[in-house]
Every structure is written in C-alpha cells, then in structure tokens.
Amino acid sequence: PSFYDQKFSCSSVKIKDGFKRLCRTDPQNFNAYADACGSLFKACASESAISEGRLLHGHVAKMGLCSDTFVSIKLLIMYIKCSSTMDSSRAFNDVPGFHVVAWNCMVASHAESGRFDEARKLIEEMPQTNIITWTAMISGLMKFGRVGDAMEYFERIPEQSVVSCTAMISGYVQNGYYEDALIAFLEMVERGIMPNMFTFVSIISGYVGLRAFEVGRSVLTMIVKLGLEHDPSICNSLITLHVRLREVDVARRIFDRMSTKNVVSWTAMLDSYVEAGELDEARRLFDEMPHKNEISWSAMIARYCQHGDPAEALDLYGQMLSSGFNPNLSTLSSLLSAAASLESLNVGMKLHGYVVKIGIENDVFIGSPLIDMYSKSGKTRDARQVFEIMPYKSTVCWNSMITGYSYNNELEEATKMFDEIPERNIVSWNAIIAGYVQNEHCERALEIFNEMQLAGAIPNMSTFSSTLRACASVASLEKGSNFHGKMVKLGIQYGVFMGTALLDMYAKSGDITSARQVFRRMTERNEISWTAMIQALADNGLAEESIDLFEEMQQEKVIPTELTFLGVLFACAHCGLVEKGWHYFKSMQSVYHIKPRGKHYSCMVDLLARDGRLTEAEEFINAMPFQPEANAWAALLNACSIHGNEEIAERAAMRLWELEKENSAGYILLSNIYAAAGRWNDVSRIRRLMKEKGLKKSPGCSWVEVKDQVHAFLVGDEGHPLSIEIYRTLDLLTSEMMLLEEAGFMDLKTIDSDTQAN
C-alpha cells in the first residue's frame, strides 16, 4: 500500500490533522509539500510519536525531500525530541552541507543528555558558532549540576547577550545558587544588557528560592518600567512570589487581572491553594480550568504526590489517559514516585514499560524515580540494573541507589556505593547517615557525621534530623546537646522540622525540661510537634501534664492525628483515668473521624487492665472489629500478673502464644503468675515448654553515658574492660541496700516486683 493508504495509529489530533493536510497537498508543489512534511514532523515531535515519524521519514526519503535543508532539519529535531540517539545521529549526517541550526540542535541534544564529550567535539569542529551554541552547552551543564563547567563556557563567549546571561541566571536558580543568580543579574544590568521576560521569570524564582521576598518586590519597578507587567509569564512568577509571601489575596488579584491566562497561570494559582493547605480547593480550581494540557495534568498529579496522596495521583492519571492526554517526562517522574510511595511494583513496572516504549529510560529525571520505585518494592537487583544501563549516572542516581540499599537493610552494598560515588554532595552524606540510623547502627552513623565534617561538607536540617535521631536511640544526651549547639552556630532555627527532632531527642534522653523549652520556643508548631511533646511527657511519667497539653492543643484548634491519640491514651492508662480514656477513644471517630487502629485498642486494653477491670478488658478484646494485636493480650497478661488473676492469665497467654510463637515474654509472665500462686508444677511445665521451643528469656540491657561515650550492659555481662571494678561496686551497693532493708528503710521484694512488672 502507498503512504497515503496507511493509517496512523496515533490518537493525536495534531498528527491526524497534519496527515490530512499532507494528503491534500500536491507533491508537485515542492515548497508547499515540504512545508506540510515539516509540520507533520513537528506534530510527531510534540507527541513523541516516533513510529509515525519513521513512517513519514521513509516517505520523505522516497520522495527525494531529504536533500531539502528545511525538511532535513525538521526530521532531525523530531528524532531529537523523541530521544532517539541513533536516528538523530543518522539524520544529522544526512543534513546537506553545514547549517548552524542543525549543529546547534545536535550540541543541545548531547548536552541535554549529559553527553558532554560529544557536544564539545562538535563545538570544536563547527566552522562557526553563535550565541545559541554556547547557551545550549551552558544549559546542559547546568541541568546536570556542573555549575563550574558552565561558568567556564560562559566566560568563553565572545560577546554576552540577554540569552546567555539568562541561561546562567536560570541555571544558578535551578541548582540552588540563588545568591549567584542575583549577582549575575546585577552584573548583567550594569553591562547595559536589558533583561527580558525570561530573565525576570528566573530572577523572581531566585528571590523565592532565597526567601528574600521583600527584596523580590524591588524588581517590580523595573518590570513596570519596561512595560512587562502584563506579560503572562511574569504575572505567573509574581503569583508564585506572592503565594510564598502568603499573600494569597494579592496573587488572586493578579490572576483575575490577567487578560490572557495560560496553563501556567492556572497552575500558579492552583499552587496558592496548595501552599495554604487547601488541596480540595486546588482540585476545584483544576476542575474549573477551561483548557487542560499535559502540563496542567502533570502539575495536579505532582501536587498530590508532594502532599502525601499517591493513590489520588494514580487515580488522576487514569482520568488523564481517559481525556486523551499522554504523560510527559514530569508526569512520569511523579507517577513513579507515587508507585514507590505505595510500594506498588505492578503499577511501577507498567510505567517502566511505557518509559522504555517512548525511549526515555536513560533520562536523568526518570532514572532516579525508577531506582526509587524498585528499591521501595524490595527489588534492589532491578534498581541496580536500571542504574547500570544509564549512560550518564548523575549524583542524584547514585544517592538513590544508596538510599535504596539502606531501605532494604543492605548496608554493605550502600556503603560500597557511597565509597565509589565520583562526586559526593550533602545529599550523599545524608543518605548514608540516614541508612545507618534506620538500620539501628547509630554509633556508626555518628562516626560518619564526623567524617563528613572532616571532608568539609556543611550539615543541613536533614543531617541533623538523622543525627538527633541517632542520639535519641542511644540516649546520648551529651552528643545530642553538642548537635544542638552546632545547629545554633549554623543559624538553623526552631522550625517545625528541627524543633520536633530536638524535643524528641531531649525527651528520649530523659531531659524533659530541655524538651519543654524547645517546644515552647518553636516559632511554629503543627500536629506532629504537638504529638511529639504529648508522647514525650507521657513516656517520661508526666501523664497528667501530657493530657493537659492535649487539651491545650485542642484549644489552639490543631487537629490531632492517630499518633496523638496513642500518646493521650497511653497517658490515661498510666494515670488510671479510665473514664477520660473512654471519652478520648470515642471522640476519635465521633469528633475527628479517625478510625481507631489496633494500637489504639491495645491502649484501651492496657487502660482497663491496669485499673483491675480484667474481665471488661478481655471482653473488649473479644469484641474488637478485627484480629487483636499481640500487644493487647500481652497488656492483659501483664495486668493479670499484677492483680493475680490466674484464670484470665491462662486464656491470655494461650492467645498470645498463638500470635507470637517465638516470643518468650508471654511464657515468662505466666510462669511468674504461677510462681506467685505457689503452683510450682505449672512453673516447671512452662519452663519445659520454653526449652522444647528453644525460647530463652531476653537479657535485660541498660546503658550509661560517661564522657561522651555510651556504655551498654547486659545481664551477666563480663565483656566490659572494667567489669571487675563494676561488679565490685555493685556488690557493695547490694550490701548497703540489704543493711537498709534490715533497718526497715526499704523493701527489696517490692522493688523486684516492680522491676518484673515493667
């Protein structure tokens, strides 16, 4: 069949219209036919429709149109946009003679894909270059974070222009070098180079990134002077600036005044609602958009991912496909992150298949989310395979592999990756430190932090979050206080994120006074910080204060979460406030629409059982709407040992054994109950059962910090280098306590009973 008889499989309206136009054009009219072919190539490029593009390429070659420069360049651009490296190389070689546009396209293609050696070689071979050549190289280097190399190319440009200066400013902003962006902008103006709308868009983003919002207002005068205040792109940036200033009303006025609103305008306004925490209102605005495209769909999907609703993001993706839109690079990156968050390997693999189909699997912005998705699904081999086939491995991809191995408890592999990484940044250090903390190797994590400082890396909030967590895990108050001091030196404020980490560290290290001070000094508190303080008070035996703080939280109109109620119910249990505990438990669903989970039910069992209401506690467990947790039966069994109820204890122990066959705690508790009742035959029976099952009592462990070093001790442990002196001192203390008991000042039996109960 002839080319005209073939039907394009693509559903794109653009391609179908382009094909119809080509069919209506007379091939004898060379210029008109070449123009129609060029338009169809452009449509294929915009839709990444490489199959249709290749079909058209064959027809163009047959018609002898490849010798036309216009058609050959459109063909080249189509293959570049479709990320087909081999096809674009062949198309470039077929372009007749030297044409600077074709060479610039190839330089940009290589640079944008991280193939800098090929890009440099082309530049060296070019008979002539222009500002676009240099700018393409600068933009590519900036994309991959090679700011220093980009600066070198910028300085080599014979004559600077607004295009090259804007590329540098945009690159600085893209890589977080906001101050450098502002300096470059001022130097540009001093040279007499007038900024354009793209420059202003970038510099406003720089002010937003630097959080120099008030200073950002200063560019408004220049924008008005140049008559650009009504430009849609600048208006969009100003909307973002005012959103960051929390001036949503001003942002809305700018939006309403715009005579022409594009997709970016709607998206910027949508972000204003997201920033204000009104995701539902953002969705309403999205649904009202008169025209949607891939960018608007991608923006809304990304917002759901960023705000912890990956399931809704995937659901919206289904609606996007139903509306006839295909995902772009940004959409696919967000969707892979959503699949990773849900640990949905099936969805992730389907997305990977689509990525391979359209030929973008080697893109740096796809590689990292793919690695993350496979890692979070427990498939580190597949993640490593994705990493290995990438032609250019950015630092982001290396960091993703380190995080992936750590997430799956493969610390040896994570460490190897960290040692082999060509260029470390603060994220690399944070990834390996967090990995050791997550896998409970806290001492090693703190050692790596010291190595990081020796390497000259400056810690940030994420670093301190991990190190404070490590200090909390080993209850190292001295080290935690040192980190607090470092934070103050670096000017890291008590925001929600760091304030919560600090108070958690102090609370778990037993310094509840410092935890209180941190909490009260926090300039902003959210439900997470309130919950952390409520739990801290409850854990440190200040249950009544914990409940008072919860009441204060409600007065401040902060909505509690599931974790908040866990802390409150725990506090009620330790205060014996049964009625109040019932009130809070019932209010979870009736007032806050939070469905109680297994842990909440276990807290209620503990509350009832501690108060001696053992029968009521057992009935409560049996009436649960789902399978009770082992902790519920353990709480009941522990209360039975305190209140001496053998009958309920036996039933609770049996259920606990069914749920946790390898846990010795239930056996030991029941054995102690029998021993207290003098049922020695039953004690022997339980001990035999434990022996047959190979169960042993977990040894008690305690630790103490002396001179910034944590010393841990197990029951019967003689491995400490000072164990002889330690046991000698312990014997002396024991003798003193026995003398005090004989004198009637203490009862050792009571102390032993309390220790076993806890």
TrEMBL record:
Superkingdom, taxonomy of origin: Eukaryota
- UniProt feature coiled coil, ranges: none
Which N-terminal residues, if any, form the signal peptide?
A: none
* Positions of PPR repeats: 99-133, 161-195, 262-292, 293-327, 394-424, 425-459, 526-560
Among InterPro entries, the record links this protein to: E_motif, PPR_At4g14850-like_plant, PPR_rpt, TPR-like_helical_dom_sf
State if Zinc-finger is listed as a keyword.
no
One GO BP annotation of this record: RNA modification
Task: Write one Pfam family the protein is assigned to.
Answer: E_motif
Asked if Protein transport is a keyword of the record, the answer is no
Q: Which GO terms describe its molecular function?
A: RNA binding
Q: Any idea which UniProt keywords this protein has?
A: Repeat
The protein in question is named Pentacotripeptide-repeat region of PRORP domain-containing protein
